[in-house]
Design brief:
This protein is α/β, with parallel strands linked by helices. It has helices at 15-25, 40-54, 69-77, 108-126, 160-168, 178-199, 224-240, 247-259, 293-306; strands spanning 6-10, 32-37, 59-63, 83-88, 130-137, 204-208, 268-271, 280-282. The protein has a single domain, classed as 3-Layer(aba) Sandwich (Rossmann fold). Helices cover 42% and strands 14% of the residues. Strands 3-2-1-4-5-6-7-8 form an eight-stranded mixed beta sheet, with helices on both faces. A hairpin with an 8-residue loop joins strand 7 and strand 8. The model has no long low-confidence stretch (mean pLDDT 94). The structure holds NADP nicotinamide-adenine-dinucleotide phosphate.
Length: 307
Amino acid sequence: MKVIQSVLITGANAGLGFEAARQLAHKNTITKIYLACRNEDKANQAKQQLVELTNRDIFEIVTIDVSDSRSVKSAVSNLHSAFDAVILNAGGTGGKTPNALTADGVTTIFASNVFGHTVLVDELIKRQLVTSTIVYAGSETARGIPKMGVAKPELLNTSVAEFTAIANGSKFGGAADPLDVYGTIKLTGALWMSSMSRKYPHLRFITMSPGGTAGTNGMDDLPFVKKVFFKYLGNLMMPMLGMMHSVDKGAKRYVDALFDDQFQSGRFYASKMGSPTGPVVDQATIDPLFGMETAQDNARLAIQTLS
Ligand SMILES: NC(=O)c1ccc[n+]([C@@H]2O[C@H](COP(=O)([O-])OP(=O)(O)OC[C@H]3O[C@@H](n4cnc5c(N)ncnc54)[C@H](OP(=O)(O)O)[C@@H]3O)[C@@H](O)[C@H]2O)c1
């Protein structure tokens, strides 16, 4: 496996992305970390904190809004040196208007979790700017977490039309609860990654869930009652019940995916069934859908048609 020296992380100003940048900077082999963030003030603040925390001045800001393909393309056109790895970490519940359609005709929640990252990876490959590994932030919700009341996503036939309907929101309707559609969207991202691994065998494509992680801003945009329930009560109770772990444990999963060659290209790793924390396993052992090449390719084809 190629030695990884430089990494671009989307959504690096907060939560798991910030912590991944901090952990990577503690590795001597890492010489450059690109903090790909949408808000320049937050990015500058994060960069300053990271330099202070790690005593290393190896961070460079890349301004990018992954929910907007024009922003993604413009950011890539300003990159002039290749790097080894990308962590596609930005995302979450899609802001205040998760179901609103972007200029690309996809919902904001799909754009920020999947579509913008697919445009980013396509552009990086086209310009030969990424040389080794792509890690995508998956989620246990993509196969359901029954213990937490998160149902397994229901797919009808995994056709291109169905993945298109997931992307433009017509599968769910304009009033869909972001917590109900999030798992299906992350599932689509994981399938796209697996298809990409077969299309570009010279690169490693690994979907890695950070696992249930307390203390991030991931629930901030939910309506007030849900935010209180999931963010504040959840952050207190879930770790005690073993349903959430700390942000350093979550981000370490990304770092492991980058450096440990037991993690194979085209696979989706997340916690064992029944838990969103603990050791990770290949999710195709839980749900065979993740290993189905037709479903993987249909997810990619639907996305490609949107590009
Ligand atoms: N926390 C968990 O339990 C958990 C579990 C499984 C998977 N995940 C996944 O892990 C990833 C990180 O989540 P987190 O918990 O660390 O959340 P977080 O604290 O809210 O951090 C999300 C990061 O993504 C950025 N971001 C969001 N939309 C963006 C956009 N359109 N363009 C650029 N950056 C954008 C945010 O930037 P701003 O600060 O500007 O908003 C922030 O830096 C997400 O993909 C999430 O779905 C999280």
